[in-house]
Amino acid sequence: MRLLENPNPFKLVVFGSNVSGGCNLSTAPERIQATWEESVRIAQAAEAAGLDAMIPISRWVGFGGTSNHNDRAFETCTWAAGIAAVTKEISVFATVHVQSIHPVRMAKEAVTIDHISNGRFGLNVVAGYVPAEIEMFGQDLLERDARYAYAEEWMQIVRRIWTGESFDHEGVHFQLKGAYGNPLPIQQPAPMVMNAGNSPQGSAFSARFADINFINMHNLDVAPDQIAAVRAAARDAGRDKVLVMAPITVLMRDTQEEIDAYYHYLVYEHGDWECACNLGSALVENSTSIRDNKMVMERLVLAMNGYQVIGTPNEVADHIRQLAATGLDGVALSWPDYEDGIARYQRDLLPRLREAGLRV
Ligand SMILES: Cc1cc2nc3c(=O)[nH]c(=O)nc-3n(C[C@H](O)[C@H](O)[C@H](O)COP(=O)(O)O)c2cc1C
To answer: Is the whole model's pTM more than 0.90, yes or no?
Structure first.
């Protein structure tokens, strides 16, 4: 059953298995390599473990440093089509920069993957944040309001094509004659739509066009307010419910000694700090002092600046329970080593999450 309707009270999906390094900026040999065989193994293992979806990262150029993190990256629509063909139950998303693909083509590609997957496809829309990636397409990365205005026009066209209507469109960015698509999506009225964005503009976009707002969160205390803001934006847009999910990187080992040793190995022995500085400057305006901020640097290295959950199986299960208690509807998991992470999830975490009532 697709992610939106499946009975799991707290959704768990796999994030970033299509790009080298995933969400961990290191040169550790067990990090993800982004080969096709590995992508298939990870998706099939995730499905066997009962995880809800695969969500790729959209990346066109790496972040430099020794690892050149994410430099090797499968294009996500074709990746999703392939993953859909080798799985049966798990939902499969593509993550798409709106400025990288014409909306008429996007609508048809999405419908095609929806048919390949028999109604398990989701479109994760990203506005982008790395200027070089958008410049590759001969465009400038627009400033935030303009970026979302572009995304809105793009998404309106995609959604309208999914209705089967034939229409002309005279907009700011697109002028179309007789835009149309057949077949219709298997999922009616539309495939699942997710938007990855943190700003109020991102929440407003999600409220109007998406089923899920994918946000970044850094701390349990502010999460309820972040989530409330998304819910309020959804209400303002006349929508009952927009799910809110966030990426987390999990480092789980059986004992504190093993955790400390693996953390040190990942962050200090193999961590790519130069790459972390590059990523930091892409993410944070005025980031000159990032290198001196140990906490931020470690978070960049370990989790690509995302939320980290570190501990023994009991501690990780408890932490996930606390995340669920903030009002989050689910999290997108990544690990320093995906195949090991999924095996440990199935063996050590799933029984505890079932006991906590978070998974069926
Ligand atoms: C959870 C999450 C996942 C994201 N994934 C990607 C991605 O795969 N590729 C990308 O270029 N940007 C990604 N982004 C960044 C968005 O493109 C960026 O946030 C966008 O410009 C929206 O701006 P906003 O966060 O200010 O709303 C992601 C953002 C979030 C919050």
So the answer is: yes
